[in-house]
Design a protein that fits this description.
Shape: elongated
Number of strands: 11
Distance between the termini: 19 Å
Pfam family, one: Stress-antifung
Organism: Vitis rotundifolia
Order of helices and strands: HEEHEEHEEEHEEHHEEHH
Structural class: alpha+beta
CATH architecture of the largest domain: 2-Layer Sandwich
CATH class of the largest domain: Alpha Beta
Helix content: 25-40%
CATH topology of the largest domain: Killer Toxin P4, Chain A
Keywords: Repeat, Signal
Bound molecules: 2-acetamido-2-deoxy-beta-D-glucopyranose
Strand order of the largest sheet: 1-7-10-11-9-8
InterPro entries: GNK2, GNK2_sf
Strand content: 15-25%
Protein name: Gnk2-homologous domain-containing protein
Oligomer: single chain
CATH superfamily of the largest domain: Gnk2 domain, C-X8-C-X2-C motif
Number of helices: 8
């Protein structure tokens, strides 16, 4: 029951799922069994199909999709630096994979390095939506943990403010800080429909949920929820920042993101709190 303290801690903020993995390739699905099934050839399935295929067909693209059909609601968010083509490709893959991984589930989520996608029959994508959460940390420490402990919170705090102050089309900020010979690259993002304060609250809540003994000193961390996320690494994992939503760079084709290939280090150890999920259900 090594995780009980954590579960008690997070269960005060309604239902939570929390996955923690160390240094593994970034990809996780959440099939919400307790939210019920739809049957084949039902209206639910038809609505879900049309929603997901509409996502991939969208031409005006700022990396955020939120729409509903019948009782189905769906949401998708791409990392803010992706081109529309790369974003659509990620969402297309996500849709396909998630339908296969969570067949007939009314509510399900999938998180990738480049995008997240979820659907439900509930109005789940509210301002307080914090679950399911995915957290992963690198195994190695920063080269100067003490110095980084001074610098990193300031960097993340600045990026949080910048992202939260973003436009209704994109709430995304990236930045870097140098400690000695090491450069830390960080990214912070909220779904752009959130108000400034809602974005700030989401990121603060997400940060609070990360066990400090898990993340402290580690030279890379990824924390993702349905409506906000942040990440830092000691290498540049994002593309240069798009200037503004209206000057989204032209599509670059189907090349996989360098970040995705860099994250497949798979360096061993994994701490998985799936066993704790049962305690988290409401
Ligand atoms: C963190 O501390 C909690 C108890 O406070 C413990 O249950 C957990 O195993 C620790 N996690 C790590 C990664 O050391
Ligand atoms: C959902 O589907 C699973 C597997 O097909 C089945 O075992 C379960 O009883 C279903 N649950 C509901 C609420 O229909
Ligand atoms: C969603 O579907 C579940 C299972 O079928 C049902 O119990 C629940 O009432 C539905 N929720 C909404 C908001 O329709
Ligand atoms: C629904 O359809 C899929 C694919 O056609 C099939 O694999 C699955 O068994 C069906 N599920 C049910 C509950 O009939
Ligand atoms: C999406 O595009 C495909 C191929 O062009 C088309 O078959 C499908 O009907 C479109 N879906 C929607 C919802 O527009
Ligand atoms: C999605 O759209 C609905 C309806 O317009 C809205 O209430 C909600 O705040 C939007 N955002 C999210 C993240 O669900
Ligand atoms: C880091 O800080 C701790 C506590 O402040 C101190 O004990 C330790 O010596 C410091 N380590 C280095 C390498 O400066
Ligand atoms: C990594 O940093 C943590 C937190 O400062 C420290 O407890 C741990 O001993 C460090 N591990 C190594 C291998 O330096
Ligand atoms: C991948 O990571 C390595 C070491 O962390 C770094 O040297 C390299 O530049 C990174 N590659 C990309 C494409 O970010």
């Amino acid at each position: 029951m090594g995780c009980l303290g954590l579960v008690v801690f997070i269960s005060s903020i309604q239902m939570h799922l929390l996955t923690i993995a160390l240094g593994q390739n970034f990809l996780r699905q959440f099939c919400m069994r307790e939210r019920g099934n739809y049957t084949n050839n039902s209206a639910y399935q038809a609505n879900l199909d049309s929603l997901l295929s509409a996502f991939c067909n969208t031409t005006v693209d700022y990396g955020f999709y939120n729409s509903s059909a019948g009782e189905v609601k769906a949401i998708a968010l791409c990392r803010g630096d992706l081109t529309p083509n790369t974003c659509r490709k990620c969402i297309g893959t996500s849709s396909h994979e998630l339908r296969g991984l969570c067949p007939n589930y009314k509510e399900a989520y999938i998180y990738y390095d480049n995008c997240m996608l979820g659907y439900s029959n509930r109005s789940i994508f509210s301002i307080n939506k914090l679950s399911p959460i995915y957290i992963s940390a690198k195994l190695e420490n920063f080269s100067d943990v003490n110095q980084t402990n001074q610098v990193l919170p300031k960097l993340l705090g600045n990026l949080k403010d910048e992202a939260a102050s973003g436009s209704p089309l994109r709430k995304y900020a990236v930045g870097e800080a140098t400690v000695g010979f090491e450069t830390i690259y960080a990214l912070v993002q909220c779904t752009p429909d959130l108000q400034k304060q809602q974005c700030t609250n989401c990121l603060d809540d997400l940060n609070v949920l990360i066990p400090k003994n898990f993340s402290e000193g580690k030279n890379g961390l990824t924390a993702i929820g349905p409506i906000c996320n942040f990440r830092y690494e000691v290498y540049r994992f994002y593309q240069s920042r798009p200037d503004a939503p209206s000057s989204f760079p032209s599509p670059t084709g189907d090349a996989p993101s360098p970040a995705a290939s860099n994250d497949t280090t798979g360096n061993g150890m994994q701490l998985n709190l799936h066993a704790c999920f049962e305690y988290c259900r409401d």
